[in-house]
Design brief:
Keywords: DNA-binding, Transcription, Transcription regulation. The chain is an alpha+beta fold. It contains 13 helices and five strands.
């Protein structure tokens, strides 16, 4: 065949190999998840779910440990309606190694499985692909929702973004292996102000309320909480508070600020 007449590869989104390699590095959880989100968005997958855990989960929460951008309302419905018991994606990815195309399975579904797919469609999760993940004795999945309606299996494999998704797997697992070693010990250089801010945030106080309790500006409170988040490797205020509490860093100690608050409440 004349090389000038050979077919060109189909158009699609790509991501640089360097971005994949960065995912394999050991990093703080928030930085790693931010990099993962960036890579998947570069490939065109803004809606995704990643899980990796024991083959027989012991946690009562079926969504514990997920990394996902799927709609929160769908996740709440999945948990509340007990859809984990009829989830064909989960069942497939625990038993098989080949990819799972949603459209084909959705069209073949009957009974309770059909109900599962109908519920997903209500939340915009109609077409997609799930790739089984394996790491040591752990099982999981990388699932991405596709914008194309009723995309066929041949179409997916001819899409550059999809076959790059398969290339991503070893780098993804290498990065997750670092995260699975357990949370890194929190940095012990949290300042007294950062600890005070975390304490009052754990009590449900807003930035404005904390600024009045600690007699400083709201910008200063946000600054201290942002530094605490970074030191604890957390992606948001709630996660930082949870991490600080888990490591015993946030305790209801009696500080001048606490004394002042007590005086105003008595």
């Amino acid at each position: 065949m004349d090389k000038h007449n050979s077919p060109r590869p189909p158009a699609g989104r790509t991501a640089p190999l360097a971005a994949f390699m960065n995912l394999a590095k050991d990093a703080h959880r928030c930085d790693w998840e931010r990099q993962l989100n960036k890579v998947l968005r570069q490939l065109g997958f803004s809606s995704y779910l990643i899980s990796l855990g024991p083959a027989t989960p012991r946690d009562t929460d079926p969504l514990a440990g997920l990394i996902t951008t799927f709609p929160k309302r769908w996740l709440d419905h999945y948990r509340g309606d007990g859809l984990i018991d009829i989830d064909p994606i989960l069942r497939h990815c625990r038993r098989e190694l080949v990819p799972f195309f949603w459209d084909r399975e959705r069209r073949r579904a009957r009974g309770r499985s059909r109900h599962f797919w109908q519920q997903r469609e209500l939340y915009g999760l109609r077409s997609g692909l799930s790739i089984p993940l394996r790491y040591e004795l752990l099982r999981g999945t990388l699932s991405v929702a596709l914008d194309d309606t009723d995309i066929t299996e041949p179409d997916a494999f001819s899409n550059p973004a999809v076959y790059q998704l398969f290339m991503l797997i070893p780098y993804l697992l290498a990065g997750m292996s670092h995260q699975l070693r357990g949370p890194a010990p929190p940095r012990q250089d949290l300042t007294p102000k950062e600890l005070d801010c975390l304490y009052w945030a754990s009590a449900g106080k807003t930035t404005w309320e904390i600024s009045h309790i600690l007699t400083c500006s709201e910008r200063t409170i946000d600054f201290h909480l942002l530094n605490a988040r970074r030191k604890l490797g957390s992606v948001n205020r709630q996660q930082a508070v949870g991490a600080a509490a888990a490591f015993g860093l946030v305790m209801p100690t009696v500080t001048p600020a606490v004394h002042a608050l007590k005086k105003t409440t008595h």
